[in-house]
Amino acid sequence: AGDYAGALDVCRAMTPSADxxxxxxxxxxxxxxxxxxxxxxxxxxxxxxLHAGALLHLELFYNxxxxxxxxxxxxxxxxxxxxxxxRLRDPEPGSxxxxxPRPRPPGGRRx
Length: 111
Description:
5 helices, flat
């Protein structure tokens, strides 16, 4: 367990940025405050509407909470999972989605 309160203090003392809000959202998520994490990821998107980290966190959040349509909008804004080199697998009921790495084919290009 980390010093989440200390991490949030450091975040709040810094100049706001999309990266910083995404980090702050991750801290809220680690603390279990998912509503605040989602609001904080949205703050990141306000500053940078195409911030890959915030879009990915929101995609995963909505996918794991059964809102596939909303998750798809964030995935589309992020350019799809192929851009990150990973694909989502369907989450098991009651679990968070996991990442399944896709190996690169010979030549290094993915379809």
